[in-house]
Amino acid sequence: MKNITKQSTLLKNREIKIARKYQPNADIVLFEGDRLDLMKSLPDKSVKLVVTSPPYNIGKEYEKRKDLDSYLADQEETIKEAIRILSDDGSICWQVGNHIAKDGEVFPLDALIYAIGKKHGLKLRNRIIWHFGHGLHCTKRFSGRHETIIWFTKSDEYTFNLDPIRVPQKYPGKKNFKKNEKYGTLSGNPLGKNPADVWEIPNVKNNHPEKTQHPCQFPIELIERLVLSMTNPGDIVLDPYLGVGSALCAAVIHNRKGYGSDIMKEYLDIAEERIKAAADGTLERRLMGTPVYQPTNGVKLAETPDEFKKARENLFGSRL
To answer: Would you say the C-alpha torsion 53, 57, 62, 66 has a positive or negative sign?
Structure first.
């Protein structure tokens, strides 16, 4: 597949120190246990970016389903501790979807987490929509094909580096048309445009090069944009609900330090192997900025079967 790429052509191999509990000189900390135990061991204002995708309280193998109020109370404890360890110019990014109650009612977790952040003095900078093309097919509501990243800062003086995450313009050759000193010159930034707040990035399904046994891992590319824009080389990135380590892979690839915790030892073991591969240039991943695959003419799977055409004609008429 064209989007399976080893990073050895992009990065120099480097040695990293991995610890299983907090050590100031460690490049990576992989803590087995409750996220608060790790976070409480970290110094005040020591972390530049806290980025995570917490459990959605839907009964996955790594969580116990709770009533919604208890779940949000747990999230509030995590966010309170994140604020303590966050540098004054740092950011907190919570990547969440929906909590689906047993009766099918939908609770948008980003709205509920926003209220917690606001309560504790955080300032919302963006509500980023992560759009992806695959997922469960619903029959009693529209199928969910997006999740949300809510980006908070602790102050008005925060790190934001736009240039490393710019994307190609739709019309890069566009020129200034106003009759002034810039008339006829290229109007766009040569590095590209702001990626805006709707990001189309494939989610990690079975044919994704980053797929592991984790049922809900997020793509490295999603976190790379946050790491590059909200931190600088040498800064610390923390993921309190680490899973298989995608956030720390993004940190290592871009010369940041990374700390994370998880209650599942098997996930931490996978994370360690992936992080080592990220450091030595052998990690297979989808490179940031790779276009989303679109089938071309002649791809058999993209052709509409005759029985589909007939079913649609029966329902809608021959106009289709």
So the answer is: positive
